[in-house]
Specification:
The chain has about 300 residues and is α/β, with parallel strands linked by helices. The protein is built from 10 helices and 13 strands. The strands form 2 sheets. Strands 3-2-4-1-5-6-7 form a 7-stranded parallel sheet, with helices on both faces. It has a 6-stranded antiparallel sheet with strand order 11-10-9-12-8-13, with helices on one face. Strand 6, helix 7 and strand 7 form a beta-alpha-beta unit.
């Protein structure tokens, strides 16, 4: 298998940075190739997997934690072993926004011991939220780890910040990883020339440390489900109030105008039309606090809506 290894790209980046948008762009770019995808989400149920499922592409979803945490590392390893059996040329792994990929090398080494040399690690690509990065990186070590372990870093959402702010983000990134290639963009629109040139092969230090993802420090996740048809204005008010206590809120809601995709990060709420969903309106809420976010979610729901809600 040495000469026909599956090329593996790891996609990292904090919650709401644009990883799934970038992944969808890669899927279009590689439309004529045999692709495999691993989607990792921190919530108990998958939301982003719904957005990228496509006929003819083998996809494995691993939810409820980080694939680099001991709680899911075994599932990740098993998934890599099983996907090696399929006739794919490229494997795209989108890790949770709260993942620290520092031990990717050791995981791939374990897979090789179990299965043989089936994968060629092509590098890590980190998507950075240009709007919130400077604040987030000072508070969350996991973002620093994502940066230092990346070969290519995409500064996304540059349409929402000034050139001076973009330069500050670039300088901060180079403090943590002076060798990384940096691309600046909005909506993750970029050239894929770096892929055509082969492996990224930079000096990223991914795999040289133990991941800081452990069961004891995992953030809290809450799943909200509700039946009914909802008003957009009320939902917007609800999301803005609850977002004060969260890292991220995402999901699908049935509004009077039809089904909509919900994405909230850093107090910025994005509500856009989506394909029909077969489940009740659902939100996954990720927070650093447990009881306060449950209390505020319940209080604001009762204040704004008459429909019953389940929180788990």
């Amino acid at each position: 298998m040495e000469n026909n290894c599956i090329r593996l790209y790891l996609i990292t980046g904090f919650l709401g940075s644009g990883k799934t948008t970038f992944l969808k762009g890669l899927m279009e770019h590689f439309a004529d190739r045999k692709l495999g995808i691993i989607m990792n989400e921190f919530g108990k149920i998958g939301i982003d997997g719904t957005l990228v499922k496509k006929k003819g592409i083998d996809m494995l979803e691993i939810n409820n934690g980080s694939i680099f945490c001991s709680c899911l590392k075994g599932s990740f390893t098993e998934g890599l072993v099983s996907l090696a059996e399929l006739p794919i040329e490229l494997l795209l792994v989108e890790s949770s926004g709260l993942s620290d990929p520092s031990d990717i090398d050791s995981i791939l080494s374990n897979v090789e011991k179990i299965k043989g040399k089936y994968y060629e690690y092509a590098g890590a690509i980190c998507v950075v939220d240009g709007v919130h990065f400077l604040d987030q990186v000072e508070l969350l070590t996991v973002i620093e780890r994502q940066i230092t372990g990346s070969d290519l870093i995409i500064i996304n959402k540059t349409d929402l910040i000034t050139e001076e702010e973009t330069s500050e983000v670039e300088e901060k990134i180079h403090m943590y990883n002076p060798d990384a290639q940096i691309v600046k963009t909005s909506y993750c629109r970029l050239s894929y020339d770096f892929l055509e040139k082969g492996f990224l092969l930079s000096k990223a230090c991914c795999g040289k440390k133990e991941s800081i993802n452990v069961p004891g420090n995992r953030p809290y996740t809450l799943t909200l489900r509700a039946d009914g048809v909802f008003q957009k204005e009320k939902l917007l008010k609800f999301l803005k109030e609850v977002s004060k206590y969260t890292y991220r809120i995402k999901g699908f809601f049935l509004l009077e105008e039809g089904w909509h995709q919900i994405d909230t990060v850093g107090g910025i709420v994005d509500i856009k039309p989506a394909d029909k969903q077969e489940t009740p309106s659902t939100l996954v809420i990720i927070s650093s606090v447990g009881l306060p976010v449950i209390r505020k979610t319940a209080e604001n729901w009762e204040l704004l809506f008459k429909e019953a809600v389940t929180l788990r």
